[in-house]
From TrEMBL:
Record's protein name: Udp-glucose 4-epimerase
The NAD-dependent epimerase/dehydratase domain, residue ranges: 5-106
Pfam families: Epimerase (PF01370)
InterPro entries in the record: ComplexI_NDUFA9_subunit (IPR051207), Epimerase_deHydtase (IPR001509), NAD(P)-bd_dom_sf (IPR036291)
PANTHER family: NADH DEHYDROGENASE [UBIQUINONE] 1 ALPHA SUBCOMPLEX SUBUNIT 9, MITOCHONDRIAL, NADH-UBIQUINONE OXIDOREDUCTASE 39 KDA SUBUNIT-RELATED
Length: 191
């Protein structure tokens, strides 16, 4: 039986890792990757890339398949002010919630955050609380710094230091992107 999975913002290193994991599990899965850029490095007949404003449910709604089994929100980024923070992080989560409710999906997936600017970790926590109020099951993964699969930015330069600090506190231990993707997918498909 073919499964339809919608990924919101699934073009980043974490979304690509999760897509790879899903493709490894089944050749009967169609993955709809909705992102602002539509620039997915993965090319596969089971992946449908759709450039769209993921924060605008009214734009997203008409392009969705009728049957959706799971929906996952990978969007997450710190921002300079509250309005931008909400636009980048909260609006896509609200879109996911509307998709999940309208299509009565088996479960939603969300990436939280426990490391980063306080405004970012706070908005991630608030989003989780909002999503948990739904009747649709929510699966969350709340990693620290995620590294691997080609991620190279100012944060990943801190991986060696955080690995050392992670020996003393799990709050600082960086996590390989493939482990995060595995954890999320394993939790999700239990529903």
């Amino acid at each position: 039986m073919n499964m339809n999975i919608v990924l919101i913002g699934g073009n980043g290193y974490l979304g690509r890792a999760a897509t790879q994991k899903l493709l490894e599990r089944s050749n009967e899965v169609t993955i709809y990757v909705l992102s602002r850029s539509g620039n997915n490095k993965l090319v596969n007949q089971q992946i449908i890339n759709i450039p769209i404003d993921v924060g605008d449910y009214h734009a997203v709604k008409p392009i969705l398949p009728e049957k959706i089994d799971y929906v996952i929100d990978f969007v997450g980024c710190p921002a300079n002010d509250v309005q931008e923070l909400n636009s980048i992080n909260k609006l896509p989560a609200q879109t996911m919630l509307k998709i999940a409710t309208d299509h009565q999906v088996k479960a939603m997936g969300f990436i939280g955050g426990i490391l980063g600017p306080k405004s970012f970790t706070t908005i991630k926590s608030e989003i989780i609380q909002m999503l948990q109020k739904s009747s649709i099951p929510l699966v969350t993964v709340e990693p620290t710094l995620i590294y691997g699969n080609g991620r190279k930015d100012s944060m990943t330069k801190m991986v060696p230091l955080l690995k050392f600090l992670g020996l003393f506190s799990k709050k600082f231990k960086p996590v390989d992107v493939n482990l995060v993707a595995d954890e999320l997918i394993n939790k999700l498909i239990k529903y």
